[in-house]
Amino acid sequence: MMGHWIIAPVALPAIVAALIVLVMRHDLMLQRVFSVAATLALAGIAGALLMAASQNPPEIYLLGNWPAPFGIVLMLDRLSALMLVLTSLLALAVQFYAISTDWDSRGKHFHALFLFQMMGLNGAFLTGDAFNLFVFFEVLLIASYGLMIHGAGRDRLRAGVQYIAFNLIASTLFLFALATLYAVTGTLNMADLAARIADLPEGEAGLIRVAAVLMLAVFAIKGALVPLQFWLPGTYANAPGPVAALFAIMTKVGAYAILRTTTLIFPPETAATGSMVADLMLPAALVTLAVGSVGILGATTLPRLAAFAGIASMGTLFTAFSAFTPQATAAGLYYLLHSTLATAAIFLIADLVADRRGNGSLTAQPRIAQQGLIAGLFFSNAIALAGMPPLSGFLGKLLVLDALRADAALIWTVILVSSFLMVLGFGRAGSVLFWKSHAVGDAAEPDHRPEPLAFVAVGGLLAGLVALTVFAGPVMGWLEGTAAALHAPDAYIAANQLPPPGVIEGN
Amino acid sequence: MEALIAIAIGSLTAAGIYLMLRLRTFPVIIGLTMLSYAVNVFIFAAGRLVPGLPAIISPDAAGYTDPLPQALVLTAIVISFGMTAVIVLMALGAWLEAGHDKVDMDDADQEASK
């Protein structure tokens, strides 16, 4: 039992971020030390929470000691612990990269915003209350606005305005959805919502369906599901490289929220919503995959290519989640781990290339410093993203295909054809970037700072992919347990110790 | 009263959506503000409209109105206020950097429409 440690992933970054703003705003070195130390501590705490969650049933943390459903609760279960670990590991790599490439000195408050973003992410993964989820979404968003325009510049600011406007609309939709849910059920605790919606009278089903679709739309905006993906390429391609890499986990927040709400609150067995969510999600996911892979083929700059690779990976992920079977969910979770690390790595590599060339354009240009090493990283990452053997992308896609045998004709075709398009797209980009430069070549030896820590960060992410491949068996075994718990959420609901039905209304 | 509130929410939302579809930053921000007003009233109405009753427990109250939506709407107001401040500053920054306040990113279109 983890007790008060459950709130640590939210409280620790909040405290350290405030300290960084107040006490160390003029000392970049001190900021770096504290920021990395806080992220290391977060990784340790997340690891301990993961160990505890995989042995024990879901554990509840009552904020202010108010019992559910009256107070706000945090819930630690296997899925949320997994997301915490993934977030902290990704954050470590991004931080090393940002420090090594001096991105954190190109504007103010990088480390404070970074830690506030961690606070929002961790809170969103831990919370067991729908309105609290909205609040943590806003925390992570407002930090992401600051990070997105870090270093400023004309295009970045204008892309930032679009990004904020789009997310403000999403927040408003989220509030409409929450108010509708509250109006029908009278609660916002997720476990209580699940219990109440399950035995709702027939006449109220219409409003619940409206709320479910609104929430799905909000999370689809976060997860860049077609037709709500328009914000992503412009935002990610204009954001600083390390920030775009950190944003790889932001789309996964949307995927996490969809998985949590659709397994807990709107499962297919619920009379009010039925298979509606799955029916909407599957076609959208397949189109997302197609749009992403065509985008990879058509991208004219490397950061945009990376952004479309992110969209394509979300398509595969949502395809797996839309099947609503434990096997498909476990495969989707494996793909989520893989695609977060792989997408983050491609953004970092794109930044390495763009920094050495002075632009991210996909055209033949003279050789860059450390070309061989960067090319090697790019190709191994491309293999992982396109889903070719031997890396985890191949295993992930294989697991997803295996889990979706029911609709094999359509789903297999889309996934396999899009993988082919991705291979073509990455092959074209790689050969233009790294091979044709020899034809353009000039005599002068390109010069650039070596930045060893940046390569350690990218290498660390790729090493994570290798580890996922090597330990695929044990990882999948653990994920199957997680998926089984998600699809039978009785233990999650029981951990909330809700009062029996009728007690509240009776008084 | 229900009809009045419903009309108010509806017209605020309609005005908000219309303004958000404009091409310049300022109307878009006003539209977002309208939309957040609409949702604030909507949240308030989610606890049912009960006139003249307290939200806090008192010995001589005949009944109560639901206090939770009032707390929710307070949170929503604070957040949307903060977010509006952020987007206004960002829009100002973008306007100063770019020299115009068009929302669209495509510079070829900008040149054509000048």
UniProtKB/TrEMBL annotation, chain B:
It is a multi-pass membrane protein. It is found in: Cell membrane. It comes from the Bacteria. Its main location: membrane. The chain crosses the membrane at residues 25-50, 71-96. InterPro entries: CPA3_antiporter_subunitC, NUOK/Mnh_C1-like. Keywords: Cell membrane, Membrane, Transmembrane, Transmembrane helix. Belongs to the CPA3 antiporters (TC 2.A.63) subunit C family. NCBIfam families: PRK09094.1. This is Na+/H+ antiporter subunit C. It comes from Paragemmobacter ruber.
